[in-house]
Amino acid sequence: MAGASEADVERRVALRLERQKYLVAENAPDFHIVLDEAALRRPYGDREVMRGQLQHLIEMSERPNVRLQVMPFGFGGHSGESGAFTILSFPESDLSDVVYLEQLTSALYLDKREDVAQYEKALTELQQDSPGPDESRDLLRGLLQLS
Q: Which band of pLDDT confidence, cut at 50, 70 and 90, is reported for residue 92?
């Protein structure tokens, strides 16, 4: 968040902390995430902050509603290399899936069926090409040992 004001950074952090509460709440939604290894190795904050982040990811990955996978560097190019995206799926059958793209100054929501299908295909490929949750957790533990 280079260039952001301190107030803006605090607002963003508070919002993200509030959103995280949903993952540990009763009736928490299923959450499946594929992280690029680069996101785990790029330092944000000091060593203690990075260790805390890795530990938090390990703990969250052990929750029954969370499936965390890490796309390793060694895989090379992958279907998610164009940037981060989120697919929001809803239990109500009358609500279509939506793709959420966060941008520098705004966010974009894609709801056209053909757009969503492209992102669903990319996510499926990422999930298939990445190590499973246990191996990914081991990778996180290895990074924690190095930090």
A: confident
Assess contact for 98 and 115: CB atoms under 8 A.
Answer: no
Positive or negative CA dihedral for 95, 66, 52, 75?
negative
Nearest alpha-carbon partner for 61 in 50, 53, 51, 72: 53
pLDDT tens readout for residues 101-146? 988 889 999 999 999 999 999 999 999 999 999 999 999 999 999 8
Contact predicate 78/133, CB 8 Å: no
* Structure token digits, residue 13: 């952090």
Q: Are strands 31-36 and 98-102 parallel, antiparallel or unpaired?
A: unpaired
Query: Whose CA is closest to 87, among 114, 103, 54, 111?
Result: 111
> In angstroms, rounded to a whole number, what is the distance separating the alpha carbons of residues 120 and 117?
5
State whether the Cα torsion 132-135-22-115 is positive or negative. negative
What token pair was written down for 78?
A: 């992958």
